[in-house]
Amino acid sequence: MAQCTEAVDRTKAKKIIMNTDTAAVNDPSSLDLATLLREARVNEEKLIHLQAMEVKLLNADSFYQVCDILIEDYRRQFNLRAVTLTLVDRGGQLKEFLDENQPQEKADRERLEQHVFFVDDYEDIKGLQTLPRVPTIGPVEDAHRDLLGDYYEDAESLALLPLVRRDELIGFLTLASVDPSRYTQDMATDFLERLSSIVAVCVQNAIHLERVQLLSLIDSLTQVRNRRYFFKRLSDELRRAQRREEPLSCLYVDIDNFKAINEQYGHTGGDVALMHAANVLTEAVRSSDVVARLGGEEFGVICSLSDEHGAKDCAQRILEAFRNTPCELGRSTQVPMQVSIGSASCDTSQTIAEPSVLNGKLVDQADSALQLAKERGGDQWVGYQSL
Asked: Going from the N-terminus, what domains does the chain have, and what CATH number goes with each?
């Protein structure tokens, strides 16, 4: 397949292709007409592929979809060794935010880690301090090591495209090839500049969209996930667990005597108690578990790769965390908090029901177990039998 990384509209491309110096054409030592026509057809084919790739980028609806198009589709389409994306991330907030909504599949996460990098600032990339904000092409140098990661050793030439939005540098797109002649310093960069602009727009728009979507899935008071996210994520996790025949558990957690806290300390005290509960829960569970506020004083936890024993271990950690961490409602006011927990587990290797059916059963059973724990006096865990 033709090798190219430039993007330009069809009219401009044809003009560039056919605008050959007349003297060169008449020179017997120059390319003949057949060669020129053949090159024109090749460039026409390149242009079709480039425009199709641009459309895919502009239609991407998530940051990770943009990344996937660049590091996989673009690399294959134009026969590159690697395509990497480096983003300026002052204070690490961007990476932290994007990690909140990263792909669920481990292979997808690992692929992104190999191709998407974050740096605290432009100047932190060794040797690139003086680069102008225009594409740079040529041989791979030591200064490019941080931009190529694992692909540094076998890359011979590259195109380094600065991504600029509203006069602010937001990162770099790096196109690497094993062919030393693929990117040479005498090449024009007009087409690369267009690609740079398009990728910058797509990356920034995708990040903004991710932020908006994430805000719609966060409980505004406690800053953990909300009910809507919980049930969508539970369905997704059940589908994945079924594909891999892995166990999955769901926990319902309810604050004991929350009404009394509200009555004694008012709604402000109740809000503080809810925020405290969310923090304790988040600290007690694994980083891979999902914590959400389902409504009122009730929370839910999704534990992937956890059977009944795993659910019990998680519940015990939560109970101990609450027993050892009173809620501070003032400088000298500490209120003990306890919770009741009900859990249900699903052995997907033994279950063939649809995820929507399993979803309903799992939450109903976890809720039933929770009610039993509260009836028994609270501050305890009850597990429902496996589905």
From this structure: 10-215 (3.30.450.40), 227-383 (3.30.70.270)
